Amino acid sequence: MKQGNRYGLHRVLEPVGTMPQPAWRIDNTMDLYSNEILLDVETLNIDSASFVQIKEAESGDQERIGEHMKKIVAERGKHHNPVTGSGGMLIGTVRAVGVELAGHIDLQPGDRIATLVSLSLTPLTIDEITHMDVKTGQVSIKGQAILFESGLYAKLPEGIPDRIALAVLDVCGAPAQTEKLVQEGHTVVVLGAGGKSGTMVLCQARKSAGPTGKIIAVEYGEAGCERLRELGWADEVLNLDCTKPVDVLQAVEKATSGRMADVTINCVNIPNTEMASILATKDEGTVYFFSMATSFTAAALGAEGVGKDVQMIIGNGYTKGHAEMSLNLLRESEQLQAIFEAKYQ
Amino acid sequence: MKQGNRYGLHRVLEPVGTMPQPAWRIDNTMDLYSNEILLDVETLNIDSASFVQIKEAESGDQERIGEHMKKIVAERGKHHNPVTGSGGMLIGTVRAVGVELAGHIDLQPGDRIATLVSLSLTPLTIDEITHMDVKTGQVSIKGQAILFESGLYAKLPEGIPDRIALAVLDVCGAPAQTEKLVQEGHTVVVLGAGGKSGTMVLCQARKSAGPTGKIIAVEYGEAGCERLRELGWADEVLNLDCTKPVDVLQAVEKATSGRMADVTINCVNIPNTEMASILATKDEGTVYFFSMATSFTAAALGAEGVGKDVQMIIGNGYTKGHAEMSLNLLRESEQLQAIFEAKYQ
């Protein structure tokens, strides 16, 4: 068995010398290196921004979406959407553990795991698409994948159905970062609060800000807003299009009597919402961009363009203990469980 | 005189309802609104990432670079490079102040100012390009520009030549943010330390980290490294290509005995340096991306892909007092003055 690099460099085909994530194409042959883990894939959970883009490009046609996905994997060796730059996650069963890792990690052939690294760097093959949920971007396949030595994973937890665990783990960085950022008494604006990451962020923001905090949820569409109102986690729920920064500015001004947010968390899965996030935030406040549709330059130049002194953070999908923290949040909240059960069963 | 919106919304042509920066096209007719400032432009200071891209696209041909710039402005109403998404800044003379602002701000017709908002949102016309420095991206033109009510500017300071002041003000966010982030005793890695923002960041990092701190400068090419060694601000100067993350990882490991950086500041003006920044940084350290060539998804997914718990910050071109702070840094340091004088005279 050949020995590979810890970070998967041995799989990079082009450009040579880059890491697997930024690489255009990686080697997805399923011959195992001695420090890799081979998985039989069951479910792909495509990143929301990526799946929306593919769905729109294929006019929602399920068969064409499948072909589009297969084409990405055939071209790049990974499900790395070239338009959005994002990936997603997967559930699979361990088929083999490389000899160098066997005995040193807590995995055995037969264990069922969720990968906590992006599909945008995971060698993948798709033999067949067996089921697709076009609402959620969860796609059942027959295929295989490789996990590198540095790759994070979580064994699937007891008492939580797989699909729900995967959905939670896919966004577990967002509530975990929320826990780090939001302090008691903070005013927090959550943009895109009705989506998967948004809902978990909202739940955690309420918990972290406490009864003296003020939580403002922004969602587009009256139905989504009504669902958020029923949850009762937000002090105010605003029905707004986040690509219209001036609308968001004026509504948050009104809701906070002009004080604006200490922390704004962007979970919107469409582009052009950077400025709404910046304008909603007070000077010296923090904007946390979890949306993969965020443009670096739009954020950087946007803040400068309106002379706003805010700290803008790139959402890191990983922070220590993020998987356990998010699964515990789910276990604690029956409402959150009900939402995920309704969405992913 | 018509009244315009504080943020310049009245100039947005498409898509309607967006802010001037993300807009594809803005209105660059030079009829002044009552809350705008009209400028006669002397010098454009094109953002480094943008100018490098244009220069490469036109094989370094000065005439073609000029045509390329004019085409961008003709198409978009602003010098907003569609490839890099970035802009730059300008020096000009106040031609007229809208009636609503006159008397309420410290500007009079005839004052010479530098704009501190990006060219990517500034209505601009170029009648003629009169001089171009292809090394620095400073371009003298005949033309006009509009500053919105929210637009930041600095009157050109006494005792510092215009072109030098403009060069400093263009990147003044970077040293100002460095001052906020770097604490005494920190280990700091500056990627792209030989460039304009990199040099100022390096100077400030040395000052903020003090004698107990460790400053590591990374630059590509032996000549640039030698210049940095002569400055004496860095404890180590490493000659490395930052698009090769593994090289950077190994060199910083060696220089820090495996401890890695508390703060890594990325000032590299080419793409694909996100991973080098992440790998150079210790767990729970901070990566500050000042480079406009940064990809949001490459950073977010890159950190997750290698399981690295770092805080990643989007460089905000504006923070309170950034202009004064940077000009003072220049005044304090004869070495910095000498560098800017050599480069921009």
Automatic annotation (TrEMBL), chains A, B:
This is Zinc-binding alcohol dehydrogenase family protein. PANTHER family: QUINONE OXIDOREDUCTASE PIG3-RELATED, QUINONE OXIDOREDUCTASE-RELATED. InterPro entries: ADH-like_C (IPR013149), KDD_N (IPR058932), NAD(P)-bd_dom_sf (IPR036291). The keyword Oxidoreductase applies. Keywords: NADP, Oxidoreductase. Residues 202-292 form the Alcohol dehydrogenase-like C-terminal domain. Residues 10-157 form the L-erythro-3,5-diaminohexanoate dehydrogenase N-terminal domain.
